[in-house]
Amino acid sequence: MKPTIVLVGRPNVGKSTLFNRLTRSKDALVADLPGLTRDRHYGHGRVGEKPYLVVDTGGFEPVVDSGILFEMAKQTLQAVDEADAVIFLVDSRAGVTPQDKLIAQKLRMSGRPVYLAVNKAEGANRAVVSAEFYELGLNLEPFVISSAHGDGVWDLIDSVLSDF
Ligand code: GDP
Ligand code: MG
């Protein structure tokens, strides 16, 4: 079975950077402007013998970030519904935000298998970083990663794929 792995998180946490790494492409547009990725949402990847499909939900987000009123776009929720696994990205430097909490709540309700990835954590203290995100109430051991540098990314994907 080829699992569909859906990347979810508020704008600017690094979804497209992770997408690029997991698909080894530069096709997703990565930028400092939140919500800029619009052009490509699906990509194929493979680890060893195991293929997977990755979905970058960034392009489904509204371009204007409405702050505390943010809700996950319908299309993102639809992608989550169709996911075999969800990677929920948060930003280690920003800490837990209200948007993260809303997303966590939606993901809990979705009943899909969720993997929490604390991104932008190059050089960070893993224990300190993971402790902070327990607040999201997902009851998960976070994967502390750097999508930009690659740290922890293959541990994460191996763990996701081990269930398929
Ligand atoms: P998206 O909006 O969630 O798709 O986020 P992007 O992938 O477009 O990344 C947003 C910004 O964060 C860009 O400037 C990326 O270069 C940067 N970024 C992504 N991953 C990392 C990381 O692991 N470490 C650092 N320091 N920056 C990152
Ligand atoms: Mg993006």
Automatic annotation (TrEMBL):
<feature type="binding site">
    <location>
        <begin position="56"/>
        <end position="60"/>
    </location>
    <ligand>
        <name>GTP 1</name>
    </ligand>
</feature>
<protein>
    <recommendedName>
        <fullName>GTPase Der</fullName>
    </recommendedName>
</protein>
<feature type="binding site">
    <location>
        <begin position="119"/>
        <end position="122"/>
    </location>
    <ligand>
        <name>GTP 1</name>
    </ligand>
</feature>
<comment type="subunit">
    <text>Associates with the 50S ribosomal subunit.</text>
</comment>
<comment type="similarity">
    <text>Belongs to the TRAFAC class TrmE-Era-EngA-EngB-Septin-like GTPase superfamily. EngA (Der) GTPase family.</text>
</comment>
<feature type="domain" description="EngA-type G">
    <location>
        <begin position="3"/>
        <end position="164"/>
    </location>
</feature>
<comment type="function">
    <text>GTPase that plays an essential role in the late steps of ribosome biogenesis.</text>
</comment>
<feature type="binding site">
    <location>
        <begin position="9"/>
        <end position="16"/>
    </location>
    <ligand>
        <name>GTP 1</name>
    </ligand>
</feature>
